[in-house]
Specification:
Layout lengths: L1 E6 L18 H18 L3 E4 L22 H9 L3 E8 L8 E5 L4 H17 L3 E6 L4 H4 L5 E8 L3 H9 L1 H17 L2
Helix pairs in contact: 1-6, 3-6
Length: 188
C-alpha cells in the first residue's frame, strides 16, 4: 500500500497553532509524528512519501493553494505519486478548554472507514477524549485528493493537558496512526 503522509503547516508561512504557555508549535509536533508514522508504516511493508505543507503557501503563479486544484502542491504530489491513502497530521486548537482527538474525512465510504480506524487507535492507545469522526468536505487536502484521505487532529495543542501528551507522546501518537492505517488495510 502506498501511503502519503502530510504533516500540517510549516515553519516558513504558518506554524499552525501554538500553545500559549509552553510555546509548543503544531508544525513541530506534526513533523515529528509524521516522520515516525513513515518509519512504522515502512517497517510494516508500506511504501511512504512525506511532504510537510501549510496548504497556504503561495504557488509559483502567486495564488494561494486554496484557489483551485492546480494550486495545491501537496494534493497534486499525492495524486501524481498514485497514493492509495492520504493522511494529513495536525493538532487542534480552540479555546484552551477543549480536549480530545478527532479525524476528519471528506464523506462516507473508504475515507470514513480509514478515519474510524485511526480515531479508534488514538483514543484507545492514548486515552484522549473521543471527539469522533467529522465530515469536512471543504478541506483542500480532503477535497482534492484522488484517494481516501483523512486529516488527523491528534489533540488540542492550546489545552495544557493535551499539549503535554503531544509533547511527550509523539511516538505513541505515531504508532496509533500507523496501526490505524494497517487496520484499514486489513479491511480491503
Amino acid at each position: 500500500m502506498k501511503v502519503f503522509i502530510n504533516p500540517g503547516h510549516d515553519t516558513t508561512y504558518d506554524s499552525g497553532a501554538v500553545n500559549p504557555n509552553s510555546g509548543l508549535r503544531e508544525c513541530d509536533v506534526a513533523a515529528e509524528v509524521g516522520a515516525l508514522v513513515v518509519d512504522y508504516l515502512e517497517a510494516a511493508g508500506c511504501e511512504c512519501q512525506i511532504m510537510q505543507s501549510d496548504n497556504l503557501a503561495p504557488t509559483p503563479a502567486g495564488r494561494s493553494s486554496y484557489d483551485d486544484r492546480q494550486g495545491s502542491t501537496v494534493t497534486e504530489t499525492a495524486n501524481d505519486w498514485g497514493a492509495d491513502i492520504f493522511v494529513s497530521i495536525h493538532c487542534n486548537a480552540a479555546n484552551t478548554e477543549a480536549q480530545g482527538t478527532e479525524v476528519e474525512c471528506y464523506g462516507s465510504g473508504a475515507g470514513e472507514q480509514l478515519a474510524q480506524c485511526i480515531q479508534s487507535q488514538i483514543v484507545d492507545s492514548l486515552g484522549t477524549v473521543d471527539r469522533g469522526v467529522k465530515y469536512m468536505p471543504q478541506l483542500l487536502v480532503l477535497k482534492y485528493t484522488d484517494m481516501p484521505a483523512v486529516l488527523v487532529e491528534m489533540a488540542f495543542i492550546d489545552n495544557d493537558e493535551d499539549a503535554e501528551l503531544l509533547a511527550s507522546k509523539a511516538d505513541e501518537f505515531a504508532r496509533a496512526i500507523a496501526r490505524g492505517v494497517t487496520d484499514y488495510e486489513q479491511t480491503l
